[in-house]
Amino acid sequence: MARPDKSAAVAELTDKFRSSNAAVLTEYRGLTVAQLKQLRRSLGENAQYAVVKNTLTKIAANEAGITTLDDQFAGPTAVAFITGDPVESAKGLRDFAKENPNLIIKGGVLDGKALSADEIKKLADLESREVLLAKLAGAMKGKQSQAAALFQALPSKLVRTVDALRAKQAEQGGAE
C-alpha cells in the first residue's frame, strides 16, 4: 500500500509533467545549495527546478504518458519543468553547466518528444521565440513591400509602353 505522502508527491509531479511544455533532467551531484539557488534564478520565470526522488518521478512520468525518460532516472536527479519558452530555459541550463561542470544535462522531453542532452544544447543555440517571430514579421513585411512595388510598377510600365507605341506610330505616320 502506498503511503499518502508519496502518493501526493507522485500526483504533484504528474501534474507538473502534464502542465509543462518541456522537462529537462539533470544530475546535480557536487553543486552547493547556493549554486542550485543561482541555477533556479538563471532558468527564468517560466521554469521550475526541483530536486526529485527517482522512483517517484519515474512513476509520475509514466502516469503522465512519458516513458522515454525511464533509463535516465539514475543518480541524484533534478528536473526543470518548463511552462513557457523552452529555449530560454535551455540557454540558462547550458550556460550554467558551462560555468559549473558538476551540472550534467541528462536529457528531457519537449511536447511529448524525447530529447537527448545534445538536442537540448542545440535547442539552447536557437534564438528565442520573440526574436524568431520578429524576424518572420520583418521578412513578411519585406515581401509585402516587394509585392507592392511590383504591382505599382506594372501599370507605370504599361503606360510607358503605350506612350512609346504612340510616339512610334506618330513618327511612322508622319514619315509616310
Automatic annotation (TrEMBL):
Matches recorded under PROSITE patterns: RIBOSOMAL_L10
One GO cellular component term noted in the UniProt record for this chain: ribosome
InterPro entries according to UniProt: Ribosomal_uL10 (IPR001790), Ribosomal_uL10-like_sf (IPR043141), Ribosomal_uL10_bac (IPR022973), Ribosomal_uL10_bac_type (IPR047865), Ribosomal_uL10_CS_bac (IPR002363)
UniProt cross-references to Pfam families, sorted A to Z: Ribosomal_L10
Keyword Electron transport: no
Keywords: Ribonucleoprotein, Ribosomal protein, RNA-binding, rRNA-binding
Protein purpose: Forms part of the ribosomal stalk, playing a central role in the interaction of the ribosome with GTP-bound translation factors.
Assembly information from the UniProt record: Part of the ribosomal stalk of the 50S ribosomal subunit. The N-terminus interacts with L11 and the large rRNA to form the base of the stalk. The C-terminus forms an elongated spine to which L12 dimers bind in a sequential fashion forming a multimeric L10(L12)X complex.
PANTHER family found in the cross-reference section: 39S RIBOSOMAL PROTEIN L10, MITOCHONDRIAL
Family: Belongs to the universal ribosomal protein uL10 family.
Name of the protein this chain belongs to: Large ribosomal subunit protein uL10
Organism whose genome encodes this protein: Streptomyces gobitricini
Top-level taxonomy: Bacteria, Bacillati, Actinomycetota, Actinomycetes, Kitasatosporales
Gene: rplJ
